[in-house]
Amino acid sequence: MRIKSLLKIPDYRYDVKTIFKWLWHQWKGNQLQAVLNAVVGLAMVGISLSQVWAVKHAIDVASHTVEGDIYWAVGVMAILILSDFALNISSIWIKNILGIKAQNRMQQRMLDRILRSEWHGKEGHHSGDVLNRLEIDVNNVVNFLTETLPNTLSVIAMFVGAFCYLCSMDWRLAIIIVAMLPIFLGVSKIYVGQMRGLTRKVRDSDSKVQSVLQETIQHRMLIKTLESDETMVDKLENTQSELRKNVVRRTKFSVFSNLIVNFGFAFGYLFAFLWAAVRMSAGTLTFGGMTAFLQLVNKIQGPARNLTKLVPAFVSVFTACERLMELEENPLEEQGESIEIPSPVGIRLDNINYQYDANDGDVLHELSFDFKPGTCTAVLGETGAGKTTLIRLLLALLKPQSGKINIYGEKVEQVLSPLHRTNISYVPQGNTLMSGTIRENLRLGKLDASDEEMKQALHEACADFVFEIPTGLDTPCSEQGGGLSEGQAQRIAIARSLLRNRPLMIFDEATSALDPETEKELLNNLLSKNQRTIIFITHRPAVIDYCDQVLKIER
């Protein structure tokens, strides 16, 4: 405890046992690559130790210490070298082909977990930080599971094999060379604790840099219009400066630690060389035997050096695991089959209360309202009154802290849950198109939508302009619908929700960028069928005139 305090080793959210348990769960999908890497590694150990014998035998044959055919001895060396080449190629193939599959699989699993988790209205991590974790930390974990751990098996095998071989030649030297390892094991625990803290700071700083870069690129137009170019570059410099300082601190500690370890290995090698030289001068060791001696010492120290590299690998993967486990802290939404309710569908609020923070009080307080099946409702309220919170509650993204929300039809009424989201189409405020073609954006509403269905939805959404563009449905859109006007993007988003074809539709200021004539035509199209229950979050008088009822939310 005193050493931990002296070296300023911090406490961690997850203990080693918890991290290993999480790693075991992640390893289950990567057994094939891990096993293949282990088999190749063990085969390479066998070839490497055989090469020691082959070199010793060839030298002893050439110096007439033992009898034999020099051509056959060199031929055996050649076969072993070619076998080593083949195993190296196999290792590269396994790493490049199976490795990318393993990384992709884990990224998909993590993304799926994030998408299915509960949402609380305020993200705990910046999107740039999340992307950094899904890219770099996932890569670290996959490499550790599929390469580092299997390679450790071959490292241990090499160490044991070389030690046994050296023991057969000189057991005293073998024991002396190995005797220094307990010292390394004793120091490693202190090294891991300190290095883990430094690595965590580096990774968090790297995430901050990526967050600044992503946010700056994403809002480039705003930054240009505010003439804040230098401000954002300075902000990037400040975050990069923090990253550099943390990298320097970690590098200093790593260099100092490696210097001590390498000094120990160098001393061990020189001692072994002197021991072999003394025996050779005394005539108790052949020249080939001395060569084998030094090779075996290298093959004992080599695995020991690799074990020193294994410690930073453990540090790195512990940090990566912590950062990925944090992304999984949000509990999952209710899982199961979607619950469809026959049209028409209504939603009833009964004394709803919701607050994001106890200090700020209720955003919605004892709100009751009935969005009756087949009706059109305008939801009004000044900024900050709780309209956005109401949408999140209606979409089952949030749960009321008191009161209840029921979704119902003619013969069924149930408490609203994420499983009922299948009954709802939602058009968010602003430009919500994604990069890709108009066709790809529309098919987010219905994956198997035909061209005729898309044409009908675009017509109902007053988006016939799409067919006046030479490339039509295959017109590409850049990020956030770049290449289209706000009004065009809004109408395509509405067409996407119409393709989803659900009995309950929620529009959040979805006509704000439309001219009055287009807005009027769109509303006529949407309300011509009384089968849908429609909710407009709006400030537009034209929308209110078309609605059957009005819900006014006040602070």
Give your account of this protein's structure.
- By secondary structure, the protein is of the alpha/beta class.
- Helix content is 61%, strand content 10%.
- It has 16 helices and 11 strands.
- The strands form 3 sheets. It has a 5-stranded parallel beta sheet with strand order 6-9-10-3-11, with helices on both faces.
- A hairpin with a 4-residue loop joins strand 4 and strand 5.
- Helix 5 packs antiparallel against helix 7 and helix 13 crosses helix 14.
Q: Main traits of this protein?
A:
555 residues; alpha/beta; 5-stranded parallel β-sheet; 4-stranded antiparallel β-sheet; 16 helices; elongated
Short structural description:
This protein is of the alpha/beta class and 555 residues long.
- H/E order of the elements? HHHHHHHHHHEEEHEEEEHHEHEHEHE
- Give the helix tally: 16
Computed CA radius of gyration, to the nearest angstrom: 34 Å
Task: Give a quick account of the main beta sheet: strands, pairing sense, barrel closure.
Answer: 5 strands, parallel
Question: Roughly what fraction of the amino acids lie in strands?
Answer: 5-15%
Order of adjacent strands in the largest pleated sheet: 6-9-10-3-11
**Overall pLDDT confidence:** 80
Number of strands: 11
Distance between the termini: 53 Å
Shape: elongated
**Helical content, roughly?**
55-70%
Q: Uncertain segments of ≥5 residues (pLDDT<50)? A: 1-10
Please state the structural category. alpha/beta
